[in-house]
Amino acid sequence: MGFDVGAIRVVACDIFGTTVDWRTGVARQVAAIAAERGVALEGGAFADDWRERYLPSMQRVSGGEREWVYLDTLHRESLDELLELRGVADAFDEGARRRLVRAWHRLPAWEDSVDGLAGLRERYVVAALSNGGFALLTNLVKGAGLPFDCILSAELARTYKPEPEAYLTAVRLLDVDPAEVLMVAAHKWDIDGAREAGLATAFLERPLEKGPSVTADRADDVESDLVVRGFGELAVLLEAGPRT
Amino acid sequence: MGFDVGAIRVVACDIFGTTVDWRTGVARQVAAIAAERGVALEGGAFADDWRERYLPSMQRVSGGEREWVYLDTLHRESLDELLELRGVADAFDEGARRRLVRAWHRLPAWEDSVDGLAGLRERYVVAALSNGGFALLTNLVKGAGLPFDCILSAELARTYKPEPEAYLTAVRLLDVDPAEVLMVAAHKWDIDGAREAGLATAFLERPLEKGPSVTADRADDVESDLVVRGFGELAVLLEAGPRT
């Protein structure tokens, strides 16, 4: 079954890495908060290590090893571990740690995101669909000025992508069929999860997502209906418009 | 305890009657669809009768008399009854009835809503919080160009306002305290429900909400923290800004 652009009614967008540049945003805030406390931390490397703990920490929830918890809680646990590992735990009190966790609530959009989403929004319902909690996403989307029609979060299913329920809860809330939703993501695991849940998929390449020392997912390794290099390109590709 | 504008972080807005003019929108669509079918229906009166069945139909759900169902389903049941009562049931087939139910998905904003919400949004998280389903609200908000930061629906609690869970689910998703949320509504029952759930309240008078022959709720009969005549006035009143 080929991809039918005419069937798409909703464009659901992953956020971290796909729509916003988490690494630049987190690195900058980590470096600033560390500097205030007289600690030298390389923000980029710290952000990389922090993000590396993201998937395994979620998998413990998705796999049923532990109850559902907010992404903020997972971020906090990884942060505590990391500060310990770096031998700087004493320099970061409760207040500083809370501010660090909230760094993930304020991240810059990739250059093409705002205009590209605005273009898509002319023809489609454009939704955020992330593992970030609803409050986190609301703050993040507002801060970055991202023009979504609505915010959806895996929190609403009390699980995490790539579990099918994370996608299917969003599909049900929007009262559409899975095949009417195009999931846009920069990560193979997310594209795979969406496809398995019956959604159409667009892989959005973000070669710089993980900085200079970590290779981001590449289109060659991903099976998706579309491949694009930004939201602007996606808006052009989808100009055939929705079925109406 | 007096009202403290400095405590407010979220402005939650009721939709039907408060933000959009359901009566004008529904009346126009009912009249148009009836005319197509060669039936003379006075759209305004029909809209009034339809809306009159709204609270009782929801109360059967909130009171536990029946399982939670979509607002669309309640609208459809009331519609079927009404068409029967008017003796015009035969003129409206399945397709026409579906279109009539979807009239509630496409309604015009009151004149002050778009600019007033935009003003509020500069200082607060501004959310839709309605008994309309998530999909209905997404369509409605998009169609009317209402600049909300996020859409929340009583559907997320699988109940209806004025049940406390409808408000408190929204509060929890936004990760704030009830007293940090200002509920804006044109209906006494909604203001009462929000207050009982611990939210701050703003009664927004819409004297024309129910048309010329039905009296809308009036400020004198409502106990609320604020009384305003539109979203523009509310934005001015709240200019003291949020606690930051």
TrEMBL record, chains A, B:
One of its GO terms (molecular function) is (S)-2-haloacid dehalogenase activity. Keywords: Hydrolase. It comes from the Bacteria. Residues 231-244 form the Cyclic nucleotide-binding domain. The keyword RNA-binding does not apply. Signal peptide: none annotated. Coiled coil: none annotated. Pfam families: Hydrolase (PF00702). Its EC number is 3.8.1.2. Transmembrane segments: none annotated. The keyword Nucleus does not apply. InterPro entries: 2-HAD, cNMP-bd_dom, HAD-like_sf, HAD-SF_hydro_IA, HAD_sf, PGP-like_dom2, S-2-haloacid_dehalogenase. Belongs to the HAD-like hydrolase superfamily. S-2-haloalkanoic acid dehalogenase family. This is 2-haloacid dehalogenase. It comes from Actinomadura citrea. The lineage of its organism: Bacteria, Bacillati, Actinomycetota, Actinomycetes, Streptosporangiales.
